[in-house]
Write a structure and sequence with these properties.
Strand order of the largest sheet: 1-2-9-4-7-10
Oligomer: single chain
Number of strands: 10
Largest sheet: 6 strands, antiparallel
Structural class: alpha+beta
Strand content: 15-25%
Shape: globular
Number of helices: 11
Order of helices and strands: HEEEEEEEEEHEHHHHHHHHH
Radius of gyration: 21 Å
Distance between the termini: 58 Å
C-alpha cells in the first residue's frame, strides 16, 4: 500500500466515524490521527442496547474505559455469545462488521486504536523478518492482556487531556502496541523474534543532533529512525536502551529545557517561545512546562528575573 493509499484509508476512517456517529447516541469525543502513517486513536461515548457495527477499512482495537454492563457479541464466527467486561479488549480485523448487545442500554465509554494493514505488515517485518506477508490478527472479543490494557488506558487519558494526543506520542504508542499484538496475539506468535541491531553511539549522536536542529518543528519517530539508520521499531527499543527514556519523553524534555533558556535570556512573548520550542500552542507549552518544572512559564520568567 502506498502512502497515498494509506492516507485515503485513514481519510475514510474519519468519514466512516463521523457518518456512523451522526444522528446516533454515539458521540465522537476526541480523535488523533496520522494519515501518512495509517494510524488513529478515537475516544467515544456510546449509549445502546443493540449496535450493528459497520466494517472498518482498518484494524480496530477497542478497550472500554467505562462499562456499567457486560457487552454480548451477537455477530461473527468467533466468540459469538461471549460477554466483554471492564478490563477486556477487542480486536476487529478490517472488513468485518460487528454486532453487540447490552442488557439495559446504559452509557459506555471506549478508546479505539486504528491502523492499516500496511502498518501491521511493516511492524511484523521489523519483528520477524521478511516471511510475514500472511500475518493476521484474529477477531478477539474478550481478550485479556494487562500490558495492552495499560497502554490503551494511557491513550484514553491523553486523548481527553487539555492538549490532546500529540503526533509523536500517537506514533510511539502505535508502534509499541502493534508490535505487542504481533508478538503475542497474531498468527506469528510461534515464530522466534529476530535479534535486531543495536544503536551505536554514532547513531544516537546523529539522532540527538537532529532533534536539536529541528526542535521547533514536528519531529516524528520515522524521521528520527531514518537519521539513525534503523527501522522505527528497533529505533524505539534501542533509543530507550541507550538513553534510558523514550524518544517522545526525551524530545519533550529538550523542548522544556530550550523553553527555560529562552525565558531566561529573552523578552520574547510566551506564544513565540512556544512555537520556537516546537509546542503546538502556548497552552500546550504551559501544561508540559508546569508538569516538568512545577510552575508556569510566566511564573518561571518572573522568578529568574528577580
Amino acid at each position: 500500500m502506498s502512502v497515498d493509499s494509506q492516507i485515503d484509508v485513514m481519510s475514510s476512517v474519519t468519514d466512516v466515524a463521523l457518518a456512523k456517529y451522526a444522528g446516533t447516541p454515539i458521540s465522537l469525543d476526541s480523535i488523533a490521527q496520522n494519515r501518512k502513517q495509517g494510524i488513529a486513536a478515537i475516544k467515544t461515548t456510546e449509549c445502546f442496547q443493540e449496535l450493528a457495527h459497520e466494517a472498518w477499512p482498518t484494524y480496530l482495537v477497542v478497550l472500554p474505559t467505562h462499562m456499567p454492563d457486560p457487552v454480548r457479541k451477537l455477530g461473527g464466527e468467533l466468540g459469538r455469545g461471549s460477554r466483554a467486561r471492564m478490563g477486556a479488549f477487542s480486536v476487529l480485523p478490517p472488513g468485518r462488521p460487528g454486532h453487540w448487545a447490552t442488557e439495559h442500554g446504559r452509557t459506555f465509554e471506549t478508546v479505539k486504536l486504528l491502523f492499516t494493514r500496511e502498518f501491521l505488515l511493516n511492524t511484523a517485518r521489523d519483528v520477524f523478518g521478511d516471511k510475514t506477508e500472511n500475518v493476521e490478527l484474529p477477531d478477539i472479543h474478550t481478550g485479556s492482556d494487562p500490558f495492552l490494557v495499560q497502554v490503551m488506558s494511557q491513550i484514553a487519558t491523553e486523548l481527553v487531556s487539555k492538549n490532546g494526543l500529540s503526533d509523536l506520542y500517537l506514533e510511539s504508542v502505535s508502534h509499541l502496541l502493534v508490535h505487542h499484538l504481533v508478538r503475542h496475539h497474531s498468527t506469528l506468535t510461534q515464530l522466534s523474534e529476530r535479534a535486531g541491531p543495536s544503536l551505536n553511539r554514532r547513531a544516537i549522536d546523529r539522532t540527538l543532533d537532529f532533534i536539536e536542529e529541528h526542535l521547533d518543528e514536528t519531529i516524528t519517530i520515522d524521521a528520527m529512525a531514518d537519521v539513525a539508520g534503523f527501522s522505527a521499531f528497533h529505533f524505539l527499543r534501542g533509543f530507550k536502551a541507550e538513553m534510558g527514556d523514550t524518544p517522545h519523553r526525551y524530545v519533550m524534555s529538550r523542548r522544556v529545557e530550550r523553553c527555560r533558556e529562552l525565558l531566561s535570556s529573552t523578552d520574547e512573548p510566551l506564544a513565540h517561545i512556544a512555537y520556537a520550542c516546537g509546542f503546538s500552542s502556548q497552552a500546550h507549552m504551559t501544561t508540559v512546562f508546569r508538569e516538568s518544572v512545577g510552575v508556569t512559564p510566566g511564573d518561571y520568567r518572573r522568578k529568574v528575573s528577580d
